[in-house]
Design brief:
The protein is an all-alpha fold. The chain is 83% helix and 0% strand. The protein is globular. The chain starts with a helix and ends with a helix.
Length: 288
């Protein structure tokens, strides 16, 4: 299995979708509520997808259950990272560290050891992704929350690596990546939404009113999230999990551009260098 040109193009599009729904969360006034809303609305897209593609076989459901549980931790850490730090700081750190962890785990858990050239591509992409994030550290220092933001981001990197490996095995057990994605989105967003609303206590009414006002934007985020994940799962069924995971993290470049164009965040020379490293890593993976 390798990275064909159509597969690379598909994963790059998935990366753009992923950066888009993350930017929607960052642009909102309540990160946990926006995260909960986007992923709980995913069930509206998952139901017709499940009817069309069907549900995966019994062999896939242990992986689906494990992935759904891990995703609750992902949403908690994601909302915490965005509460304390910029999209362009936290997003690259959590996405840039995860491919290295996936690459380390893929040989033992998925049975896919990487070649030297593939390892080089993963390392170069991760370095570029981290550079994009580290470029924001000096401006984050004045807020007093940089440490918390980085802590949440690093914790989420481990969570991302965990569900990536689980889903890489699960999608192959399922045999159909789109049925697997539909099953994941049927169940994984609702537990986190219930947790967030439960923790609001007497402010639950205000939280529900906020969520109702964000539904139109959140529907777009939900569609982007499901589309991004389904494409990534499809790619994992046709290429090594670690390479797909690394390639998908080109989303940080899209996130940085979105942050600059729509959220008033600076780009700068360090980010440009990071983007160049990511591009070089993509080329290396393509020909590994």
């Amino acid at each position: 299995m390798g990275l064909s040109a159509p597969l690379v193009a598909a994963v790059l599009f998935a990366a753009l979708l992923h950066a888009g729904w993350n930017a929607l969360i960052k642009s909102g006034g309540d990160k946990p509520l926006d995260t909960a809303l986007i992923h709980s609305l995913g069930v509206l897209f998952a139901i017709p997808a499940a009817l069309w593609f069907g549900l995966p076989g019994a062999a896939a459901w242990p992986f689906i259950a494990a992935s759904s549980a891990i995703h609750v931790a992902y949403y908690i850490a994601l909302a915490g990272a965005y509460r304390h730090g910029d999209l362009s700081l936290t997003y690259p750190i959590m996405r840039g560290s995860a491919p290295l962890l996936v690459a380390l785990a893929s040989a033992g858990f998925v049975g896919e050891p990487l070649s030297g050239t593939a390892w080089l591509g993963v390392l170069v992409i991760s370095a570029g992704v981290l550079l994009v994030g580290l470029a924001r550290m000096s401006t984050q220092a004045a807020t007093g929350h940089r440490g918390k933001a980085i802590g949440f981001a690093l914790a989420n990197a481990a969570v991302i690596a965990s569900y990536t490996v689980v889903d890489g095995m699960g999608v192959r057990a399922a045999g159909d990546p789109f049925a697997y994605a539909a099953a994941i989105f049927l169940i994984d967003g609702l537990p986190y939404a219930a947790l967030v609303l439960w923790r609001r206590g007497p402010e639950r009414g205000a939280a529900l009113r906020y969520m109702r006002g964000r539904v139109p934007l959140a529907l777009g985020g939900s569609a982007a999230s499901l589309g991004s994940y389904a494409i990534a799962l499809w790619a994992m069924a046709h290429a090594p999990v670690a390479l797909v995971a690394a390639l998908r993290e080109t989303s940080v470049i899209f996130a940085a551009l979105i942050g600059m164009l729509f959220l008033g965040e600076r780009f700068g020379w360090a980010r440009a260098l990071g983007a160049a490293l990511v591009a070089a890593g993509v080329v290396t993976l393509r020909f590994s």
